[in-house]
Write a structure and sequence with these properties.
heterodimer; A: alpha/beta; Rossmann fold; 6-stranded mixed sheet; 4-stranded antiparallel sheet; 10 strands; B: mainly alpha; MetI-like fold; 2 domains; about 75% helix; flat
Chain lengths: ~250, ~325
């Protein structure tokens, strides 16, 4: 099994605050890697480091390497927009643009100049299909995306992300704003997407990590405490801290 | 309330009395607010009635053909509003054409691109620009701008173009600060969403942030136009005050004009109260009122469509 992303001795700072400390994590290709840990432990910061979304925050800096297919994404010659084309992201709160459903999905292909006209129609259909949304909304593509319910909005955001054919999809607590039924749908979708995409998901919900992921990393105060196959990490954790966290005694 | 009653259960009568007191207080406040609201409507209504009473005769006594004719010679009793309408139109449209792109670009720079320290210097400066008395800008137009324009080849420096530039500068602060507020109100999530797909900063601004801020920007532009169309003194100083329809040619904006507002201000002092000339000046006021009202309703309509979108109507 190949490592899609290799994180090596990665440190991240908000001004002087040392948020991520010497992380070394392998992200396997076409697998789901879950990151768990208490609030403020740095898992979201880490996720946003993988497509350099943290660049938009003033006063941050990073050291170490994040190798995407062997190439460091923090190298000076890396084009950030190109990187984000390859490493897409789905956010905690569904954030469709206040535009039509069609325009939301078409946004990525349009800004990258990838497709227009008929070809764009095809991409939009495929992406909505891929996000399991096509059947529900194919007759209302011109409606505002904000008319969808939160679960549909989140799947629309997933469709928007896969419309640019990324290689990796980062999901930052994608279900925390959704009800149980919508959560289940998104989780099923993740399993389907993992056949084609490498997925990294941050979650508060340990059952969710156990249900959907292949590998799990446990974060504590900016450090990676333990990393391993999900079944192993949840059944026979190697660290005492991990065990007390997943059994609910800490965190 | 419930915890109170469990400690000392008040008699039903006492409870009712207390309830009534609250009710009366509520009633008073509610009606005060209603009064404040209604008084605004009332005042606008009264102003309009006054305008109609004083200006109405102009529309009845002057033949329509003359009223919308191209000659404004009040001394000879000829009252054609067309030159004034055209004057106002040229100056206002000119000001809008200059101020809207400039103001929007400035707002985008301030809100989306400028680093914090620049914003902290620029914002107060722009607000200061709003505080400059219009007459001072008029001076500036007269002393600095007019000679420049004359040297550039116009017959006189006091032209519609001079007025348009001065008006543009006057409405710029309004347009900038209100559009910047509108941009600021666009949730960060939209920008993150666009950037995370791999959109460049400019694509994010152009395709996501600006459309999302559309209603606020429309309001900014409308308020800017409102300021421009109602402005009097500075315009009077620099537009040359010739109540002619400028010759239709490429140099149409480089000829002197006279706006509706300037006409009222310049001639109101010399007319006999109750004369036809007096009535006509108020008639011009009615025309101005109607134009402003139309602009405001148009703005309301544009903003309204956007409100409907939010609740999920068809685009």
């Amino acid at each position: 099994m190949e490592n899609k992303i290799d994180v090596r001795d990665f440190n991240f700072y908000y001004s002087s605050f040392h948020a991520l400390k010497g992380l070394t994590i392998p992200i396997r290709e076409r697998q789901i890697t879950a990151l768990i840990g208490p609030s403020g432990c740095g898992k979201s910061t880490f996720l946003r480091s993988l497509n350099r979304m943290n660049d938009t925050i003033a006063g941050t800096s990073a050291t170490g390497e994040v190798l995407l297919d062997g190439k460091n994404i923090y190298a000076p010659d890396v084009d950030v927009t190109d990187l984000r084309n390859r490493v897409g992201m789905v956010f905690q709160r569904p954030n469709p643009f206040p535009q039509s459903i069609y325009d939301n999905v078409a946004f990525g292909p349009r800004v990258t100049g990838r497709a227009s006209g008929r070809a764009l129609d095809v991409i939009v259909e495929e992406s909505l299909e891929g996000a399991g949304l096509w059947g529900e909304i194919k007759h209302r593509l011109r409606d505002s995306a904000l008319s969808l319910n939160p679960g549909q909005q989140q799947r629309l955001c997933i469709a928007r992300a896969i419309a640019v054919k990324p290689e990796v999809i980062l999901m930052d607590e994608p279900c925390s704003a959704l009800d149980p039924v919508a959560t289940l749908k998104v989780e099923e979708l993740m399993r389907v997407l993992a056949k084609e995409y490498t997925i990294v998901i941050v979650t508060h919900n340990m059952q969710q990590a156990a249900r959907v992921s292949d590998f799990t990393g446990f974060f504590w105060l900016g450090e990676l405490v333990e990393f391993g196959p999900t079944t192993q990490l949840f059944s026979t954790p190697q660290q005492e801290l991990t065990e007390s966290y997943i059994t609910g005694r800490r965190g | 309330m419930t915890t109170n009653s469990s400690v000392t259960a008040p008699t039903p009568a006492a409870a009712q009395e207390k309830g009534q007191r609250i009710h009366i207080g509520e009633w008073i406040i509610e009606n005060l607010i209603r009064l404040a609201g209604l008084s605004t409507v009332l005042i606008v209504g009264l102003i309009f009635l006054f305008l109609v009473r004083e200006g109405g005769p102009a529309f009845l006594d002057i033949p329509l053909r003359q009223l919308f004719g191209s000659r404004w010679y009040p001394i000879e009793g000829i009252f054609g509003l067309l030159p004034l309408l055209v004057g106002s139109l040229i100056v206002t449209v000119g000001a809008v054409v200059i101020a809207v792109p400039l103001g929007l670009i400035c707002a985008i720079y301030l809100g989306e691109i400028a680093p914090t320290w620049q914003r902290e210097i620029l914002k107060p400066l722009i607000e200061m620009l709003a505080g400059i008395p219009s007459i001072v800008l008029g001076f500036l137009g007269w002393v600095v701008l007019a000679p420049l324009i004359q040297n550039a080849g116009a017959a006189t420096g006091l032209t519609a173009f001079t007025g348009a530039i001065i008006l543009a500068y006057m409405s710029l602060p309004t347009i900038i600060s209100i559009s910047e507020d509108a941009l600021y109100a666009v949730p960060k999530e939209y920008r993150d969403g666009a950037l995370a797909i791999g959109a460049t900063q400019w694509q994010t601004i152009w395709r996501v942030v600006l459309p999302a801020a559309r209603s606020g920007i429309v309001i900014a532009v409308m308020l800017g136009i409102g300021r421009a169309i109602g402005e009097t003194m500075a315009v009077m100083m620099v537009t040359g005050n010739a109540a002619n329809i400028p010759a239709l040619s490429s140099g149409v904006i480089f000829q002197p004009v006279r706006t509706m507002t300037a006409t009222i201000a310049a001639e109101m002092g010399e007319v006999a109260q109750g004369s036809l000339h007096y009535n006509t000046l108020f008639g011009i006021g009615i025309v101005l009122f109607v134009i402003t009202f139309a602009i405001n309703s148009l703005a309301g309509r544009i903003v309204g469509t956007r409100g409907a979108r939010r609740t999920g109507a068809k685009l």
